[in-house]
Amino acid sequence: MATTVSGLIPFGALRGTAGRQPRILLIGPYDPMGGEYTFLAPPLGVWRLAGFLHQHGIAADVFDPNCCAGPTEQSLASLIASSRWDVVGVSTTGMTLQYDLALAHLVKRLQPDVRLIAGGMEATFRPESMLTLAPFDLVVLGEGERPLLEIASRLRQRAALEEIPGTAWRTADGSVRRLPAHALGRDELRDSIFQIPFERMPYRMYWDRLEHRCRIGSLPTKADREARLAEIRSVRLITLNYCPMRCTFCSSTNFLNEAQGSTAKIARLDAAECVEMIERIVNVQPDVRTVIFQDDIFVFRNDDRVLPLCEAIATAKADGRIPPELQFISTNRIDAMTPERLRAMRRAGFRVLGFGVESFSLNILREFNKAQIHPFIEPVLADALSVGITPFLDMILSSPRCHVGDIAENVRQAFKWTVAGCEVGMYPYVIPFSGAAMANDPTLRPSTIYERRHIAGTTASWEQATKILPVDADARSAILEIESVFDELLRTLADSSTHLPSRVRSLLWTLSAGPVLERYGCDMPPREAVMRALVNRLPASAIRVLRPALPVAAQRVV
Ligand code: B12
Ligand code: SF4
C-alpha cells in the first residue's frame, strides 16, 4: 500500500512556453550503490531521447545522477538553478525507484512550476504508483520519443497535456487514465538510434572511475591490465526494440506490449546499419575497446543478420574503418547458437557471449518458460569455449516451485563451467520486477517478500516486492541459509578487498552453498577445489590480504 503525496500542481497553473521551444532536462535512473552489482554505464534511454529531441530542434540536456562532479543532489540542484526548465523527465527502474523518486521530489521542491514527467520501465508498468508517490504531472508509457515530441509541441501551443497517446495522467475526478501508443516502427527506431549523441556521453569519466575502482595499476601483468581495460572501455549499443520470448521472470519482454496495449512488432537495425553505428562510435570515442550489443536477444534462432554482420565487421576491419583490435560482447539466447555462428562471431572479434541460461535444472527452466534451451546448454558452452569465446552465464539459483535438488544441480553445474573457463553471475532467487508474469501471479503472493521503501526527504513510502522465495519449505530454508552465509562471507571479505567481480562472487556462492546443501544429502563440489578456484581468480595483491580471511570465513559455514 502506498502513501500519497499532496501538492500536485494542475496543468493550467503551470508557466507557459507559448511560441518558443521548451527546455527539457532528462534524468537517468539513480543507483547510489553504483557499480556494486552492475557495470556502470551512461543511461542509454535518456541519451537516446536527448539526441532525438535535439534532431527535432528541441534543447534537451541529460543529468546523469551516477556520474556527476560532486554529490548528486547538490549537482542536480545547481543544474536546476542554472536555467528555467520547462520539463524535467525522470527515468525509473524497479530497483532504483526510491532514489529516482527522491530526485523527482527534489526537482519539484526546487522549481515548483516545472512539468515533471516520469518515464522508463517502472513508470510504464506502474503509472498509478508514480502519480501517487511523487508530484509527477504525467507518466510516459514505453518509448519516450513520440510522447516527448508531442509534449513539446503542446507546450509551444499552450495546449493541455492530457490525452497524449503513450501517456497516463490523473483526471479531475482523481482516477488515472492512460492512452496506449504503438511502438516505434523499424525506420523510426533506426532514426532514433542513429541520433544517440555518443560524442556527448561522458564515457571518459565512467572509464576513469571504473579504472580507479578496479585498481588497474596494481594488476600483476600487462595481460591482466589489458584484459580489464577491454572490459572497462566499452560502449553499449542496443539495436533491437524488444525480445518476445516471454520468460516468466522477465519484465522487459512485456514493456512495449504494456505501453501499446497489444503485441508490439519486433524492430531492429540491419547488418549494414549496425556497422555504421560501430564506425560512428569508434570515430567519436576512439579509446573504446569493446562494443557491447546489449540487445535483450542479439541472435534469434532463425536469424538472418548475424552471419552477414560478422562478415561486414570483418570487412570494415580489413578496410580500416573499424580498428582491427576492436572487440564485441553480446547478450544471446543459447539455443540460437550454432558452431558456424560461433566461429563467425569469434572471427569478427566477439570475445564474450552473455547467455541468460538462468538454470541447469529442467524443472526450473520449465517454470521460467525456457525449457527449450536445456538441450543446447552443454554443447554450446563447450563449442564456445573451444573457439576461444568466454561464455558469461547469468543464473538464478532457485525458482518459486523448485526443490533442493534443483538448487544443487545449479551449484554443481555452475562450478563445473566456471572451472572450464566460463564466467558466471548468480542471483539467489527471482526478483519480481513489475511487469513480469511471475510478479503478477497471485498464487505466488504468499511466497513473495515485501520491503518498505521510503523516499528520502518526504514521508512517502510503499511496500516493494523484493523476492519470490521457493514454496517448498526445504528449498526455501536452504536458499535463505545460503544467502546469509554468502552475505557473511562478503562482509568478512569487505574489509580486505575492494570490488569483487562476478566470477569471484559466483565462487563465493558455491562456497556458501556447499555445506548447506550437503546437509540436505546433495553432492557438492569438494570445498578445497572451490577454494583453489577462488584463490586462482583473485589478483595477487588481494590474495595476500584475503588468504588468512578466506579459510576462517569458510570454516564458519561448516
Ligand atoms: C543495459 C542495461 C543495464 C546496464 C546499463 C544501464 C544504463 N545505465 O543504460 C547496467 C548493467 C548498468 C544496468 C544496470 C541496472 N539494471 Co538494467 N538493463 C539494461 C537493459 C538490458 C537495457 C537498457 C537500455 O539501455 N535500453 C534501451 C533504451 C533505449 O531503452 P530504455 O532505457 O527503456 O528507454 C526508453 C524508454 O524506457 C523511455 N524512457 C526511459 N527513461 C525515460 C524517461 C523519460 C522522462 C521518458 C519520457 C521516457 C523514458 O524512452 C526511452 C527511449 O525510447 C535493460 C533491459 C531492457 N530491455 O531495457 C535492463 C533493465 C532496464 N535493468 C534492470 C535493472 C533491474 C537494473 C539494475 C537496477 C540492476 C541491479 N541489480 O542493480 C541496475 C540499475 C543501475 C542504473 N544505474 O540504472 C531491469 C529493470 C526492471 C524494472 N522493471 O524496472 C531491466 C528491465 C532488465 C530486467 N528485466 O531485469 N542495466
Ligand atoms: S530471453 Fe531474455 S530478454 Fe527474452 S524474455 Fe527471456 S529473459 Fe527476457
SSE layout and pairing:
Elements: E1 24-27, H1 44-55, E2 60-63, H2 72-81, E3 87-92, H3 97-110, E4 115-120, H4 121-125, H5 127-133, E5 138-140, H6 145-156, E6 167-170, E7 176-179, H7 186-194, H8 203-213, H9 222-232, E8 234-237, H10 252-260, H11 271-284, E9 290-293, H12 306-318, E10 327-332, H13 339-348, E11 350-358, H14 362-367, H15 374-386, E12 390-396, H16 404-420, E13 423-427, E14 448-454, E15 461-468, H17 473-494, H18 502-519, H19 527-536, H20 540-556
Parallel strand pairs: 1-2, 1-3, 3-4, 4-5, 8-9, 9-10, 10-11, 11-12, 12-13
Antiparallel strand pairs: 5-6, 6-7, 14-15
Helix pairs in contact: 2-3, 11-12, 12-13, 16-18, 17-18, 17-20, 18-19
The protein binds cobalamin (B12) and iron/sulfur cluster.
Residues 26, 29, 31, 37-41, 43-46, 48-49, 66, 89-91, 93-96, 117, 119-122, 140, 143-145, 148, 236, 238, 250-252, 294, 296, 433-435 line the site of cobalamin.
How would you describe the overall organization of this protein?
The chain has 558 residues and is an alpha/beta fold. It has 3 domains: 11-181, Cobalamin-binding domain (Rossmann fold, 3-Layer(aba) Sandwich); 186-243 and 272-440, tm_1862 like domain (pyruvate-formate lyase- activating enzyme, Alpha-Beta Horseshoe), CATH 3.80.30; 472-558, no CATH class. 43% of the residues lie in helices and 15% in strands. The chain has 20 helices and 15 strands. The chain has helices at 44-55, 72-81, 97-110, 121-125, 127-133, 145-156, 186-194, 203-213, 222-232, 252-260, 271-284, 306-318, 339-348, 362-367, 374-386, 404-420, 473-494, 502-519, 527-536, 540-556; strands spanning 24-27, 60-63, 87-92, 115-120, 138-140, 167-170, 176-179, 234-237, 290-293, 327-332, 350-358, 390-396, 423-427, 448-454, 461-468. The strands form 3 sheets. It has a 7-stranded mixed sheet, with helices on both faces. Strands 8-9-10-11-12-13 form a 6-stranded parallel sheet. β6 (167-170) and β7 form a beta hairpin. α11 (271-284) crosses α12 and α17 crosses α18. The model is unreliable at 1-15 (pLDDT under 50). The structure holds cobalamin and iron/sulfur cluster (SF4). The site of cobalamin has 42 residues, from α1, β3, β4, α4 and α6.
